[in-house]
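Dear colleague,

As promised, here are the two records you asked about, laid out in our usual form so they can be pasted straight into your sheet.

NAME FIELD: protein one
SEQUENCE, THEN STRUCTURE:
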Amino acid sequence: MKIEVVDKNGSGILYKFADAIGASVRGRFIDIPKNLGEGYMTGFNWGNDLRMMIRNYYLKEEIVLERKNEIPEGRENVIFFLSGIFDSSVQKHEKLAAEQPNVFIAMQSVSSVLSMPQNTFFRSITISASREYLQHHFGELKHPAVSSILSSKNTFVFETEISPAMITTASEMMHQSIPESLENHYHKIKCEELLCHIFSLILQREETPASGIHIKDIKALYAIKYHLQSNLDKAPDISSIAKQAGMSEPKLRKLFRQTFGKGVFEYYQFMRMQEASRLLKEEHLSVSETGYQLGFTNLSHFSRVFEQHIGLKPKKYSAL
C-alpha cells in the first residue's frame, strides 16, 4: 500500500497517516486497524520547535509512506529517528521481524519516504526539532557533525547506534505511571533526555570536517549498508562495493565514515557482533553455531572479536 500525505508548515503527519489507513483515535493514541495489523501510535507536540511520535505496532502488509513537504524556507526541522529502541525480548509474535536498532538524523526533506515492511514490529521514536531549538540547547557543543546538524545549508545524514542509556529512557517513557495532567511535561523531559544521549554519542565521533552529501550518494550508502547486513558471513570487498556504488574508494570511505561514524569494515564487524548477540540471546544458538553462521572458521577469533564489541565472551554473555 502506498500512501501520500502533505506536511504543511511542518505540522507533522501523525493524524494524516491515521486517517489514510482508517485508524481509530483513542485519546492521544491512534490504534492500528485489525485488518492491517496491531498496536498503536501516539505523539506529543510542544509548538513548532519540538514534536515526538512513538510507534509501537506491526503491519500485515507493507506500507510506503511518502510525505510531500510544503514548508516555508528556513522552517525545515531536523528529524531524529530512533528505530528499534524499545525492548523486543518480550515480543509476543515470534514470526515478526524486529527493526534494526539505530538513530537516523537528517533534515525533514531527506526522510520524506518511509518504508514499513510487512510482518515487522516497529518500536521507534521520531523527534522533530527546529534548528532554533537545537541551537539554543546544543549550540555550545564544538564538533563538525553537530555544526552540520545545527546550521549546515548542505544536505546531511548521520547515523549512530542506540545506546543502553537511550533504551533506559525509552523504557521509562513506556512504563511511566504519572497523572494524565503531567504526561505532556514528563514526555518533553524524556524527549530532551533522548536528544542529550544522541548528541553525547555524536561527540564521541572522530572530529573530521563534514562535507555536504548528494541524495544519490545517500541512497548508495544505504544500499551498501543493507548489502552488508544481508551478507554478515562474508567480509566486504571495498573495491567492488565502490564500483557498484559509482564512487571512488576514497570517496566511499570518507562518506561512509562521515555518515555512520565507522569505516566500512568496522561497521560490518559491529553489525556482525550485534547479530551474534541476538542469535545467542533470542535464538539460543550455541557459541559455535553462532560463529559458524556468521562466517567465522576460528571460534577463538570469534570469541575475541565478540568480547571487544560486547564486553563479555560469548559463552558468558549467553549465560546471563
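NAME FIELD: protein two
SEQUENCE, THEN STRUCTURE:
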Amino acid sequence: MKKKVVVVSASLFFMLSIVLYGCRKKDKVDSFRASMSKESSNKIILGFSQIGAESAWRNYNTVSIQRAAAKAGIQLLYVNGEQKQENQIQAIRSFIAYQVDVIAFVPIVQTGWENVLGEARAAGIPVIVCDRKISVDDETLYEGYIGTDSVEEGRQAAHFLERKYEGQEGVFNILELRGTDDSSASDGRVSGFHSVLDSDPRFNVILSISGDFMRSRGEEIARNLLRENNGLLEINGQKIDILFSCNDGMTLGFLSVLEENNIMTGKNITVITVDAQQEAVDMLRDGKINCVIECNPDQGDGIMELVKKLAGGYDIPRHTNVEERIFSEFDDLSSIEPRGY
C-alpha cells in the first residue's frame, strides 16, 4: 500500500506539537524548521500564551501584540490559554519543542511556573512575563516583566476616595470586588487599596468577594446580594456606600443588575473601577461611575522591543511599566480619546 505524503504548514505543525508534545523528537522539529523559507527562517520567532478572551480589554491586549509582531517582522505563535494554567504550561512546552527564539506569556496566576520555566531555561530560551506578575523563588527563570503597576492602581483608587470624602465624617461601607485570586492584578490592586485606606477608620470593607474578572460573575454577585437583602444594596443591614471593583468587566456586570432594579449609582453609591474600557468611560461621563483607573492594554510595541533585544543577545530591564492614567468626576472628561476597547 502506498504511503501518503502530508505537507504540514507552520500553524498546523504548531497545533500538533501541543497535542503530541513528548512524542516529537528534536530531529523532526529541526527538519520542519529547515523546510521553512529562507525569509521566514530569518525572522525572530516568538511564542506567546495569552490567558484568554474574557473581556474587551483582554481582546485588545491580544490584538496589540499581534499587530506589533506583524509590524516588527516577528513570527508570532499564539495560544489562547482559555483561563487555565495547565493550558498555558502545555503551550510553553510546545514553544520549547518548536525551539522558538523567545517565549512571552500572561500568567493567569502568580504561582506554579517553576518547572516549565526551568525547562525553558534548560533549552536556552529567554522568557518575558507580560501584564501580570509571577512569584518564583528563583527570579532568573525569566528575563523581565512588562505591564501595568497593579499596586499603584489600587493606591490611586484609594486616593480618589480620600479626595472625594475629604472633610466628611461617618463610616463609609465598601464592597470590594476582587479579580482572580492569586493573580498579581487582583492581589496588587487590593493590596494597594488597603495600604492607603486601612489607616482611615472612616472606610470599612464589609464584603470582599472574588468576581474572577468576569462580567458574568459581577452580575451573579449583584443578583445574589439583592436577593439576600430584600432588593436592597446592603449587607446584614449595612448600606453599601462604595463599590471598588478590580476590573471593568465585573463592574459593568454588577451595575447592569443594579440598573435593572432601579438602583442608580454615582451619587449615593460611589463607584471606582479599573481598566478604562470605553463602556466604563461612557458611564463615567454619564455620572454612573465616579472614577476609572486606566490599566493600559496597549503593550504590544513594548513587548516586541524586549523580544528583539533578547533575540539579539542583549539584557532587558527587570521591570518595564506601561503608562497609565486616572479619569474621575473631578476631570474634564471631554478630552478623553476613544478607547478602542
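A couple of things worth noting about protein two: Confidence is low (pLDDT under 50) at residues 1-40. The CA atoms of residues 161 and 272 lie 9 Å apart.

Best,
R.
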